[in-house]
Amino acid sequence: MSISTKTRQGALAGLAAALLAATAQAETIRWGAPRDIVSLDPYSYGDSYTINFLNHIYEGLVRYNRDLEIEPALATAWEIVSPTTWRFTLRKGVKFHDGSDFTAEDVLASLERVSDETSPLKGNLPAYQSATVVDDNTIDIELSGAYPLLLNDLTNIHIFDKGWLVANNAEKPTDVSAGVEGYATFNTNGTGPFQLESRTPEAQTVLAVNNNWWDEPAHNLTRIEFQPISSAATRVAALLSGEVDFVDSAPVQDLPRLAQAENLTILERTDLRTVMLGFNRREELVGGGENPMNDLRVRQAMQLAVDMDLIQDKVMRGKSRNAGALVAPSIPGYSEDLDTVAPFDPEKARALLEEAGYGDGFAFDFVCTNESYVNEEQFCQAIASMWSRVGLEPKLDIGPTAKQTPKRANGKADIYTIGWATLPMLDTYSILVQMLHSKEGNSGVFNWGGWSYPELDKLTQSAAVELDREARLDMENKALRIAKDEIIMMPLHQQPMAWAVSRDFSDFPQFPDNKPRMWYVTK
Amino acid sequence: MLAFIIKRLANAVFVMLSVTFLAFVIFTAVGDPVDQMLNEQATQEQRDELRERLGLEAPFLVQYSKFVARAATGDFGISFRNQQDVLAMIGERFPATFELVLVATFISLVVGVPMGVITAIRRQTWYAEAMQFTSIIGVSLPSFVVGIGLILIFSVWLGWFPAFGRGETVDLGWWSTGLLTHSGRMSIVLPALSLSLFQITLVMRLVRAEMLEVLRSDFIKFARARGVPARRLHFSHALRNCLMPVVTMTAMQVGGLIAFALVTETVFQWPGMGLLFIQAVTFVDVPIMAAYLCIVALIFVVLNTIVDMAYAVIDPRLKGADA
């Protein structure tokens, strides 16, 4: 009797110890996100939020380190064999979550999948032509021309397992227009630091640590519980009541309140996204009549009439960084001499308008969205009233993004807001080719105002094929200088971003591209 | 009776067609899904090509007739954004919305009916006045304010109930229920309360008005004269005569609650149909928006048709009338 009691006690003590050990090891992070990921398939939708989340499960050939510099991941080395051919040496001994080996065939299948005709992410690998498997651990990538930014692009091209794709009939990306679901939308098989445990859309996606990861983990998490909470007030409440440990989109106006909570740390900085205004540069204004904004003096006047310090102080609550250049300081191609903020000088603005023959002002459409950028509605209203004070007549048109974008893209806006972070490339070339270049062929997709600066176009095209980094960045910098002198776009600021995290976490790096990377987090 | 049913069904089909048509008119104004489907680096050519493949370049009537033809066979396509079968996505979320509405309706009856009786029979007392007054607040406060208020009090300050989500769920065939787990039951309290607030007021006011009417009638006076105890008189005799309109209204309101649950679902991150719809609107996910509107319209039409038919059975005068 006494022995059996003892045994039982012993067993209980052992069980308790095991439980304690288990809790000590189980380091969970409960992540309260502003929105759900759209799919488990990284090649499904041009959405960087989803792609970043899936980066916990899938990896690319190269990746960004803690300082956002490119470092080897699934590839250990690379060389440029000829200007259009890159040779990658792949890491040995890497296994997918289902246990199969990582080889060059997997890279080939993934590159084919992402560059397929129907892939929405085709644009993420613009120079890709074909790839050839040299041996199990070597692959050659053939490009359409000399292209310096291949590594930047490859950070976001996640590698699938070929065998798994073939077995599940998912070698091609899901084509929405065909109306058939794809296997990779609901299942994953990557090489990353975490693997999928379960997913209920709009409710919870759970990841468990991958104990067979090839890299030495810099984190100590065992589990990630990703829970979308779309209402900002609810998200803040869930954080305050301790139901989530971390939110990656804390509303600016709630920061003082969150800072008072003793168990929370607020991580704040300005992100890479530069918010700016674009000008209609067609012959006529949207409302008809000659377009005064083709006169540089008018654009200068409009810039001088806006008091950015006041906007920073009152609208952005001191959290934004006023910008003089069109890219943030950490983007290659930036230089400090570009980053001089235009002074606030309404007198001179009036004088310039007078000189240009628009002393009585003119009316124009000013198209803003209400949720694309931080406090956008308020700063648009502020700018509109500043312009009114120098005699202009802005007609402010505010609406949801989905409604405003067609207006902006189809030249139905005289002044519009747009933000550009150069993601996922993280290089000035992104804004040059997509926004500042003339709208022709595949360039200038976001050239919504219809301008054309041949000299800038030439610099952009030269930069596209310049393999020497210094020379390329110099060209990009020159192009930015033209954009600044001609006021092609009027830069406003880099917007603030804020994360809030429980004090239980000792190391939680915040990245300026606003992407949480849990493989650097320590609890 | 057969002619009546055929007429009602024809009406129902007409209503469904009108709703889908109006929905399509709205879709042409909500924006362009392609801009959000492709990322910053996509070229103009890729954008045009995708728009072409999705059939967004086709004339309005062509798009609409294609949709109706496919919808009639139950095929709503797959979501632009999630790449999942739309009907399956809605089916997955329907149980969450339905349970929420059911619990909210239950709360509104359990709280609203007694309140209605009390305010009717104790008209001059301070507490009846107080209930009347509070009920006005109940109707006038927007439901997201109520939701946030409940979260602040019960989740942040008191820590009694979770602020968001549905808790653990149990699958019973294709139906997922949160009512069988503790965390599921705790999670439904705040959203259901927030959704039922308006209903409570409605039920209370309806019961009160009906009670006042009934209490004036002769049979109550005679019963009182005969010495029937007040309690039995009010809750058994009088209340029973008020319930018919309450039941009808509650049944009709279920459709409304399903439709209006979307605000509550957004506030509480309740994974139901409303939340799905709101997100579809943000991303111009046309297949989901179209299917959602069709299904909500269908629920309304079915409920109304059933109520009409039930009335026709109960009240023979309606059979001949052009109701």
From TrEMBL, chain A:
Q: Which GO terms describe its cellular component?
A: ATP-binding cassette (ABC) transporter complex; outer membrane-bounded periplasmic space
User: Which residue numbers delimit the Solute-binding protein family domain?
Assistant: 69-442
User: What Pfam families does the entry give?
Assistant: SBP_bac_5
A GO biological process held by the record: peptide transport
Per its record, what are the GO molecular function terms?
peptide transmembrane transporter activity
Q: Which domain of life is it from?
A: Bacteria
| Record-linked Gene3D superfamilies | Dipeptide-binding Protein, Domain 1, Dipeptide-binding Protein, Domain 3, Periplasmic binding protein-like II
Q: Does the keyword Signal apply?
A: yes
Tell me yes or no: is Transport among this UniProt entry's keywords: yes
Q: Where in the cell is it found?
A: Periplasm
| Keywords of this entry | Signal, Transport
Q: Where is the signal peptide?
A: 1-26
The cross-references to InterPro entries, in alphabetical order and at most eight, read:
Peptide/Ni-bd (IPR030678), SBP_5 (IPR039424), SBP_5_dom (IPR000914)
Say which family it is in.
Answer: Belongs to the bacterial solute-binding protein 5 family.
- Its recorded name reads Peptide/nickel transport system substrate-binding protein
UniProtKB/TrEMBL annotation, chain B:
- PROSITE patterns from the entry? ABC_TM1
Q: Which CDD domains match?
A: TM_PBP2
Task: Please give the superkingdom of this protein's source.
Answer: Bacteria
One GO term of the cellular component aspect?
plasma membrane
Keywords attached to this Swiss-Prot or TrEMBL record, sorted alphabetically, are: Cell membrane, Membrane, Transmembrane, Transmembrane helix, Transport
- A Pfam family of the record is BPD_transp_1_N
**Membrane topology of this protein:** Multi-pass membrane protein
**UniProt KW Transmembrane keyword:** yes
Fetch the InterPro entries from UniProt: BPD_transp_1_N, MetI-like, MetI-like_sf
Gene Ontology biological-process annotations: transmembrane transport
Membrane-crossing segments per the record: 12-30, 100-121, 133-160, 188-207, 242-263, 275-303
Subcellular location(s): the record lists: Cell membrane
- Key word Membrane present: yes
ABC transmembrane type-1 domain segment(s): 94-307
Its family remark reads:
Belongs to the binding-protein-dependent transport system permease family.
The protein's name in its UniProt record: Peptide/nickel transport system permease protein
